[in-house]
């Protein structure tokens, strides 16, 4: 045996590929098996990846909370928090809530598509664009279902269709992949840091005022279990502590649901409803889609183009962040190769937005990355093979479990009062982890400076303006180095 093979053999864990599942196993250092389908790599549970119970438990809470918050946002934008509109549609208040969950269930199915099709991410909303989207929709009055005035719904349908088209063009032409690759490292780091800073601002500004004690305790618990080095060393020595640590943010979620309403009283006690989540697809199709309302006028599409371009520019930063998070996490694992393809990610984002625009228009939009959700998985993945056998065990299980979770009505109603707390936990984790990743991306002091300024710009300005600031700053500070390197090569 050669010295190289001996070194590789010494790295292979004793239990590598020893389990029954998945049925298809990878070679050490290889790519997890898949079924090739055009540009997509399909991975099925138990055949191409194991079922991770930790990610399943996290999805019961985090996944449902995310869907619940997105559904609530969409219903508010469509005027479904207005008693008059609820009555005009022949619903009760609880009936409107249950009907709205149909939006969440379909979006949960779309959440699963990226990992199923080979995109190594936990997808989510295009979160930074949400305030801009809501402001855009404010051009049209709240729907009045008694009179049939639903221009705002038409505007959302048209906007999401145009956004889907943007993703398709970028994915099919390969422009999306090229954009991610050519962006300077300092600007990429600024985008990552900006995602962290804006997440921290969201926690301090929007989450803490509603339930300050609960949010602080839950976020600090998450930090302790995910990042504390003393706790990590103790986990290496004791199985029980290691089991707790491997649950990631789940202990903080349990605290928010079970203990916080009784011990602190900042959020309501859950009102549990039993059974499976009722699906109201015929009702949704009739009142909120082109199949019941008809196709939007072309004026809605023309109006949507500038906003859709802005949303794509914002989503572009998620492609950058996704690639860096995946690269940083997999660099610490020799046993598996994971590839992020921005072109494929664009195509999956097109499919998700196209589905939602047709069957259940979704105001937060379908973005390529939920950074907080992915980071909770990659932090576990970096601990080694014995913690998470494959990257795909984590991301595939998480989003497949989200579909299961949102169909269980007691779970949805149990978590309903804690939607905002869970969102605070995810934003808190994103802030901390993006700080780690963004700082590590910088290799020079100039890159650190540019990244810091750009992160500040993302906090105070729109992503479009912040990106322009980053480009100008890079051109002033680092751009001339391109010509220096070119002269050196020619000489």
Structure description:
With 491 residues, the protein is mainly alpha-helical. It has one domain (34-41, 48-486). 68% of the residues lie in helices and 1% in strands. It is built from 23 helices and two strands. The chain has helices at residues 3-11, 53-77, 83-88, 93-116, 130-137, 151-173, 175-182, 185-207, 212-227, 229-237, 239-245, 250-263, 281-288, 290-293, 298-330, 342-359, 371-381, 391-406, 409-415, 419-441, 445-460, 463-477, 480-490; strands at 35-37, 40-42. It has a two-stranded antiparallel sheet with strand order 1-2. A hairpin with a 2-residue loop joins strand 1 (35-37) and strand 2. The longest helix has 33 residues, at 298-330. The radius of gyration is 23 Å and the shape is globular.
Question: What would a concise description of this structure say?
Answer:
The protein has 491 residues and is mostly helical. The chain has helices at residues 3-11, 53-77, 83-88, 93-116, 130-137, 151-173, 175-182, 185-207, 212-227, 229-237, 239-245, 250-263, 281-288, 290-293, 298-330, 342-359, 371-381, 391-406, 409-415, 419-441, 445-460, 463-477, 480-490, and strands at 35-37, 40-42. The protein is built from 23 helices and two strands.
């Amino acid at each position: 045996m050669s010295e190289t093979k001996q070194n590789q053999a010494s790295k292979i864990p004793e239990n590598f590929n020893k389990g029954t599942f998945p049925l298809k196993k990878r070679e050490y250092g290889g790519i997890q098996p898949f079924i090739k389908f055009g540009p997509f790599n399909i991975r099925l549970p138990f055949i191409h990846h194991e079922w991770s119970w930790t990610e399943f438990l996290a999805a019961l809470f985090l996944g449902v909370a995310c869907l619940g918050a997105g559904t609530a946002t969409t219903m508010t934008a469509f005027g479904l928090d207005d008693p008059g509109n609820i009555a005009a549609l022949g619903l009760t208040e609880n009936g409107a809530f249950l009907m709205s969950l149909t939006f969440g269930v379909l979006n949960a199915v779309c959440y699963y598509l990226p990992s199923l099709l080979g995109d190594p991410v936990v997808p989510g909303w295009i979160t930074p664009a949400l305030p801009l989207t809501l402001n855009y929709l404010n051009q049209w009055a709240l729907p009045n279902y008694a009179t049939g005035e639903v221009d705002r719904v038409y505007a959302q349908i048209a906007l999401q269709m145009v956004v889907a088209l943007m993703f398709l063009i970028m994915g099919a032409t390969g422009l999306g992949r090229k954009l991610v690759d050519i962006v300077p490292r300092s600007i990429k780091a600024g985008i990552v840091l900006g995602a962290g800073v804006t997440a921290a601002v969201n926690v301090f500004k929007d989450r803490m005022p509603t339930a300050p004690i609960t949010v602080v305790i839950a976020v600090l618990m998450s930090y302790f279990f995910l990042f504390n080095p003393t706790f990590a060393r103790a986990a290496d020595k004791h199985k029980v502590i290691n089991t707790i640590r491997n649950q990631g943010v789940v202990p903080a979620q349990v605290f928010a649901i079970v203990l916080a309403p009784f011990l602190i009283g900042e959020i309501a006690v859950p009102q549990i409803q039993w059974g499976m989540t009722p699906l109201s697809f015929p009702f949704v199709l009739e009142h909120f889609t082109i199949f019941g309302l008809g196709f939007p006028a072309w004026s809605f599409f023309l109006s949507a183009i500038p906003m859709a371009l802005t949303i794509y520019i914002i989503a572009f930063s998620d492609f950058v962040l996704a690639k860096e998070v995946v690269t940083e996490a997999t660099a610490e694992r020799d046993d598996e190769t994971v590839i992020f393809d921005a072109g494929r990610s664009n195509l999956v984002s097109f499919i998700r937005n196209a589905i939602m625009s047709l069957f259940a228009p979704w105001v937060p939009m379908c973005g390529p990355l939920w950074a907080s959700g992915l980071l909770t998985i990659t932090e576990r993945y970096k601990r080694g093979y014995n913690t998470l056998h494959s990257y795909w065990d984590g991301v595939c299980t998480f989003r497949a479990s989200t579909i299961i979770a949102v169909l269980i009505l007691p779970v949805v109603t149990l978590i309903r009062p804690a939607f905002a707390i869970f969102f605070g936990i995810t934003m808190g984790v994103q802030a901390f982890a993006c700080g780690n990743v963004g700082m590590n991306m910088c290799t020079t002091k100039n890159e650190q400076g540019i990244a810091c300024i750009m992160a500040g710009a993302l906090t105070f300005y729109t992503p479009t303006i912040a990106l322009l600031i980053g480009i100008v700053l890079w051109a002033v500070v680092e751009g001339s180095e391109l010509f220096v390197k070119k002269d050196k090569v020619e000489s």
